[in-house]
Amino acid sequence: MAHQDNIDRLNTELDRRKDDLIALTQDLIRIPTLNPPGENYRLICEYLRDRLAPRYFQCELIRAHDTPGDCEKYPRWNIVARREGARSGECVHFNSHTDIVELGQDWTRDPFGGELDGDKIYGRGACDMKGGLAASIIAAEAFVDTFPDFSGAVEISGTADEETGGFGGVAYLAEKGYFAPARVQHVIIPEPLGLDSICLGHRGAWWAEIETKGRIAHGSMPFLGDCAVRHMGAVLNEMETELYPALAQKRTDMPVIPKGARQSTMNINSFHGGQNEPEAGFTGLPSPCVPDSARMVIDRRFLIEENIDDVQKEITDVLEKVKSEREGFAYKIREIQRIIPTMTAKDAPVVTSVASAIQNVLGKPAEYVVSPGSYDQKHIDRIGQLKNCIAYGPGILELAHQPDEYVEVSAMLDSAKIMGQSLIDLLVEKAA
């Protein structure tokens, strides 16, 4: 009975804070933290500090010096806020990235307006993931006010650069020990993977740039040169006829969503051959040259059942086969980044606590999913060596990076109740 009484007390407090949840989400959306290049990171960290410090959270602003993109114009700032309980115990950490992607076209709402229309708050980052950040803050504040004698600690972080790899955010903090298992025991990342879904992890990724070489010559006499674009075309043809069908046959037992991602995939991220694109407004004509270089960036997503060395070998096998068949073919390959798949066990403490809360709040069992793309769990797992980590938060995944992105207030409130009940379970009742 005490368990339900605790839940009822917290839910009553969270319902009372609905307007604060809306206002907080709107404030966060109105800080344009576009990445690239990485704007207003310190501003949003200072906003979070000014909110949390008066509530007895010890706040650290941490710049990720010398990480990709960090410079005096666009410094990579992060915040870690920690509220200690009345006695020793475990720490539950809520981690949200503060950066947002470019706006794109076709918005019908102000992307930085935070407009409330019915149950929806619109704006870039509303879904991915300032709504999740706001929900976790409201959940944590309501929890510490309702149960001031809780054990352990509650942490909230706002981190940079998740949209571009997380190296100036969670990776940097993990390297500095902020996610060491002796310091933090449970991590919830409020990414928008579905209100009833616990995201256990993500597929792996291997990014690489492939360059084919040629020889420049006058375009009217291409036989005197060697066209690098044609060489790259042969690579693309080999990928289309052999590699892509082979990838489609690789299946996983990981519960990846959407179902189309339950296989190995590869995206051609970019392709460039020949002369550089002219500057905007240039009205001249291109010069007649045979291109001596073509470059392609690939984004290969792989499964937990695959080995990273085999993933790389599949690409080099394609290139070597083309080389054996084409006179003058030469290539270079450069790794851009690698991300190893990760998946938390279903019986991990943070998973079972959140699953119980989902059943209580939503009246149905939790779904278990895996993300098709990666997020900052990779750094918490691989660098921090902390396995007890999930993604759970409000929002519809398909709205991420879309025009007229929104988050539903009702979903944020429900997710705050689920996060709050997880805190009760981990820091009040199991600690008793």
Overview features:
six-stranded mixed sheet; alpha/beta; Aminopeptidase; cobalt; Succinyl-diaminopimelate desuccinylase; elongated; Alpha-Beta Plaits; 10 helices; four-stranded antiparallel sheet; about 425 residues
Q: What are the segments in which pLDDT stays under 50 over at least 5 consecutive residues?
A: none
**Counting H and I runs of at least 4 residues, what is the number of helices?**
10
Secondary-structure element sequence? HHHEEEEEHEHEEEHEEHEEHEHEEH
| CATH homologous superfamily placement of the largest domain | Zn peptidases
Can you list the strand order of the major beta sheet? Answer: 1-2-6-3-7-15
Task: Walk me through this protein's architecture.
By secondary structure, the protein is α/β, with parallel strands linked by helices. It has two domains: 2-202 and 341-429, Zn peptidases (Aminopeptidase), CATH 3.40.630.10; 204-275 and 286-339, 2-Layer Sandwich (Alpha-Beta Plaits). The chain is built from ten helices and 16 strands. The radius of gyration is 24 Å and the shape is elongated. It starts with a helix and ends with a helix.
Please summarize what this structure is:
This protein is an alpha/beta fold and 432 residues long. It is 34% helix and 23% strand. The chain folds into two domains: 2-202 and 341-429, Zn peptidases (Aminopeptidase), CATH 3.40.630; 204-275 and 286-339, 2-Layer Sandwich (Alpha-Beta Plaits), CATH 3.30.70.360.
Sequence-ordered SSE layout with sheet pairings:
Blueprint: H1 2-16, H2 18-29, H3 41-52, E1 58-63, E2 77-84, E3 87-97, E4 116-117, E5 120-122, H4 126-146, E6 151-159, H5 170-175, E7 186-189, E8 197-202, E9 204-213, H6 228-248, E10 265-273, E11 293-302, H7 308-325, E12 331-339, E13 342-343, H8 349-362, E14 367-371, H9 377-382, E15 389-391, E16 406-408, H10 409-429
Parallel strand pairs: 3-6, 3-7, 7-15, 8-14
Antiparallel strand pairs: 1-2, 2-6, 4-5, 5-16, 8-13, 9-11, 9-12, 10-11
Family: Belongs to the peptidase M20A family.
GO molecular function: hydrolase activity; metal ion binding
Domain Peptidase M20 dimerisation: 201-325
